Amino acid sequence: MEFAQFYQSLYGFPPFPWQRRLADRFASGWPPQAIAAPTASGKTGVIDAWVWALAFHPNEVSRRLWYVVQRRILVDDAYARAQQIAQRLPEAVRAALMGLSASAEPLNVLRLRGGVFEDMATIDPSTPVVICSTADQHMSRLLFRGYGVSDTSLPLHAALAGTRATIVIDEAHILPTYEANLRRCLGLGADLRVISMTATPGAARDETLSLDESDRTNEVLCRRLSCAKPATLLKGEQPALVKQAKAMLKDGCRAVVVFCNTAETAAGVALLIPRAWLLTGRIREYDRHRLLDALEPLRSGGPGPASPTVVVATQTLEVGADLDFDGLVTECASLSALRQRFGRLNRLGLRERVQAAIVWDGKKQSPVYGSTPNNVFAWLRTLGDAPDMAATSIDEALRVHPPREALDVSPELGPAVTNDLLETWKQTSPRPLWDVPVANYIDPSDDTTATLVWRDEPPSPMLVEAYPPHQQEAAPVPLAAVRRWAGDRIGVR
Prior knowledge:
Blueprint: H1 3-11, H2 17-28, E1 34-36, H3 45-56, E2 64-68, H4 72-87, H5 91-98, E3 108-113, E4 116-117, E5 129-133, H6 135-142, H7 154-162, E6 163-170, H8 176-186, E7 191-198, E8 208-210, H9 213-216, H10 219-226, E9 232-235, H11 238-250, E10 255-259, H12 263-272, E11 277-279, H13 285-294, E12 309-313, E13 327-331, H14 335-342, E14 355-360, H15 372-381, H16 391-400, H17 419-425, E15 449-453, H18 461-466, E16 474-478, H19 479-490
Parallel strand pairs: 1-7, 1-8, 2-5, 2-6, 3-5, 6-7, 9-14, 10-12, 10-13, 11-12, 13-14
Antiparallel strand pairs: 3-4, 15-16
Helix pairs in contact: 2-3, 3-5, 6-7, 11-12
């Protein structure tokens, strides 16, 4: 069975040309080091390509695929995609994978992220498995300090994370330290194939799979990447975001997203828009499930909302989420962030009319992007009052009107993994007296967090003892924010 037949049998339509080339690369035993594919070009298809190649070219493909992305919502989306593949396997693929599997299933699918723990140690190492994970869950295991793993099981998890596995880093541009240290581990004995995947690549690699002429002339892909997305440029602060969202609803938009650069701004905006949904990284798992269930009609190709809907979000919705809007308002940010955000507007290119606005607060420094938003807004102004934010239009604008100042934030790399550190981490039971935490070697930009649990009931020790806090009730919040909140109320510092 050819890859195109396999893909068609799963989804009812053919793969994009770049996906076919990727499947061939997997089958040859030489997958690319990087994949540069714009938003809405089907990057999760890497899972399909790996499954097909493993079934028909098992000697060239590792038995484990780690699909790593640093957003819980995207881990869940990839997990759903992998489960769908496992459930719909054509008979020829199923039979081929059963010949490799030591379990009753031809393809296992696991999910590892905060709030969810599925025990990968129960999977036989020879069994084909897709593991959808955050960078924290994967790298902590690779470095013998797996989060939520007992000391006696750490070596087993390290082997499953670092031996005969393919690691796909989705949205790799937001994980520079993780990627750098993952590639350093290759020189320290890890037996891995590492593929960086992003819609906004930085420095080009020699082994990068990109879109070519066959992709750019593909009718479906061309429509997605070229559909016009004119954005009005405005100067203002939080009230301007609210005003624009309400104006779009009044003008006929059915689904509007408002992107804010910080959780504090997002919360403030959501309070000023009646019945707006708020989606940030600081919500409880329980609330996240309720919210995503309510937003299911907004998924690409879905029926759309039954009534006008506004979603206020931070970067948690910026990358990868398969939601489609006909109105978009965003704070000015780095150009890469804006390109990701506009990937949620008319995602499939099927809408005849969309509205968008980019709002700049005029401040010299952004708490997230530094001075970059000033540079981006000034450059966008050179393109007119309503520049087209379609992927192909921005590429052309960068070629014709190259910016004089940086439009993206330089990635901040954390400390490097060394052989001496690895020797320390290999001591698992008992651990060294002076152990080294691994968090900064994964993502040093993560704030130290506290976990908050709250309930809509009077505090009662007896009730808490009878019904102890559950992970579904917990929300991670930066420790500095907790101290500010608690200090204002009970004098804690």
